[in-house]
Amino acid sequence: MDKVSKHTLKSNESYQRLMDAAFKVFGQYGYDKTSIDLLAKEAGYTKGTFYLHFKSKEDFFLEFMDHKLSVYKQHFLPLLNSNATFESIISQGIKIFYKLSNEDNWIPLFFEFCSIAVRNESVKERMSIYYQEWFKIICMVLEKGKQTNRLSANLDLEITSRKIVAVLDGYNLQNSFVSNSYSLDQIEQLIKQILGLD
Amino acid sequence: MDKVSKHTLKSNESYQRLMDAAFKVFGQYGYDKTSIDLLAKEAGYTKGTFYLHFKSKEDFFLEFMDHKLSVYKQHFLPLLNSNATFESIISQGIKIFYKLSNEDNWIPLFFEFCSIAVRNESVKERMSIYYQEWFKIICMVLEKGKQTNRLSANLDLEITSRKIVAVLDGYNLQNSFVSNSYSLDQIEQLIKQILGLD
Amino acid sequence: MDKVSKHTLKSNESYQRLMDAAFKVFGQYGYDKTSIDLLAKEAGYTKGTFYLHFKSKEDFFLEFMDHKLSVYKQHFLPLLNSNATFESIISQGIKIFYKLSNEDNWIPLFFEFCSIAVRNESVKERMSIYYQEWFKIICMVLEKGKQTNRLSANLDLEITSRKIVAVLDGYNLQNSFVSNSYSLDQIEQLIKQILGLD
Amino acid sequence: MDKVSKHTLKSNESYQRLMDAAFKVFGQYGYDKTSIDLLAKEAGYTKGTFYLHFKSKEDFFLEFMDHKLSVYKQHFLPLLNSNATFESIISQGIKIFYKLSNEDNWIPLFFEFCSIAVRNESVKERMSIYYQEWFKIICMVLEKGKQTNRLSANLDLEITSRKIVAVLDGYNLQNSFVSNSYSLDQIEQLIKQILGLD
DNA sequence: CATGAATGAGAGTTCATTCAT
DNA sequence: GATGAATGAACTCTCATTCAT
Fold first, then answer.
1. C117 to chain D: which residues are within 8 Å by CB?
2. Domain boundaries A1-56, corresponding CATH code
């Protein structure tokens, strides 16, 4: 049983504590400037323990990234089974996105993911898969809109979902550098315009 | 050709070649993974030459970033004096953006800027200034649209410019990971929708 | 033998070996010309081990200097409890000083301490403290001379101790450059003259 | 005509300016921590000029040391032809010594000389010669004391001169670290005691 | 005479990784 | 499972020295 498979269970405490520590330190200092020493100490262990569980720093980062993006995605799954009106589901989704985005360390971490993904083919693929899943969830939500006649039957959901993601990502990026760049309302207004709900 | 100018010429050349090399190596490997050794070698010099011109790696990066963002911005300035129709100015702008974005190394470099800016207050400020200038240029273009009655007089140009930037950045980000994520036409269509030109 | 003690033993050994190596290499090459690489190699380790124990070269030097001066001082402490005659205690003290001074590397090392102390306020303070302790020990010895009526009750011990230290340091310095500059007898004679024992 | 011989004349301005700068920067930062860049700049030149005149940093330092020690010595030569009383010549000499010792940078520089001399045979020889000259001057002064019956005819002048130098050097060293360690009066008193003038 | 662009060896320091305990 | 001593490669940065101008 190799190291990696041990963690496919994702059950033991050290795994969780290292993941939590990673969120903090990778977010705060970035991948390169975070030493294993610091990461382990933050988790309450020492360097040695880290290598007991993970093959290398890179290996760990990839696993951490998968974990993080997967957890991120899960926050939106309840929307798929919601009984609320279409408009309120949309609002709800934007609110969740807004809240997650403003969580400490998330945006810096996301840039870190981007920075690394853009230079590493295999990481890029993971990001691509993540985006595809993202589009899919939005498509499923939008489908509800069509079914309830809130959206035009002609709307290309695939394209529309990509537009929505672009807008959300774009606002997020902008907000990282320009303070008070946007409000929840503005995002909501723009997305509704895109959906033809205005 | 006197002594001074020969020395100055040489100095200017090494400065410029280091800047050019930076675009390549920072884009390719990222800030942390790029060593001064590599950067200098890429420019055809040795480490020592680098430190003849710049105080430190960080110092250099900031200067390089300023330089790069300033050059980037300049590509859009001709739009301000264009005599073309409003719609074609918009198309033209998007085309320029699209072309620059697809230049090798630009997107990775931009993520690098983001990654560093988000953790460094002084870099963040530079990014903020850059974004402000960006908004301003777009506002000036949109103003033309108002003057020629192509845009509604009620349109809040400040907010609209931010929306446009968000959309462009967002599509750029998406396109870095999802291949064939969008076409020029799609961006143009979305921006025209935002402007109420559809 | 439990885990902790084995680790601790190893750690103590490398610490001690680095200190010992420092006596040799700092004495031989001086502070600036001694590289951490050389120091570590002399101790039988590599650079990394050095940084396991010490924060920086400067930090290490200060710790080493404290250590060395403290050990130096300890050689004289037995004099304080000696039952020998006052004159023989004085002779004994000078002999110890002479022996320590002729130990390989000590004088060069002492100049190194001086060189650095004179330019660094915090090192200077340590040197000052060291001299004060030095004066004190001599005062305590001289006090015995007063109690046994070998020294005049009028003698200012504080000032006299400083004179003795000056003479010893001065001869040491001279002896570093002028071969056969002085003999033990000459120092002893001068100090006895200062004490009014002649 | 080689580089060195140019300067045997010791006439040109650059020579003097570099010597003056050296006194300041070597005194302030020490040999190793003083860069040629800084030295030249302090003298009002650039690196290149330095190498126009001197073969290497070490070469320059030795020449500077010779120069400095020679100038130092010259301050005492007037004593040899003085018509004052023996006691006042002694006082005068100590005063000159005291004044020179308290000149900014001199003591640190002297330690630098010691530090380097003790590790370099040829520099050591220069120091030895300097000390010999030093002893000689003092001997010549003391001879006057004998001729005027102020000193015992039995006094071994050679040994006495060495004692005096030891006392002066020793007090100087002490004074570098222990503030208010000694006064002119104390030195004078001790030296007079050594001479049997008390 | 004087400059300063360029070099390259070498410095102090960090850190991912290994492994005996 | 957990530790921490040890390594060595790689990094940023400095500086004595050279030489074309």
1. 176-177
2. 1.10.10.60
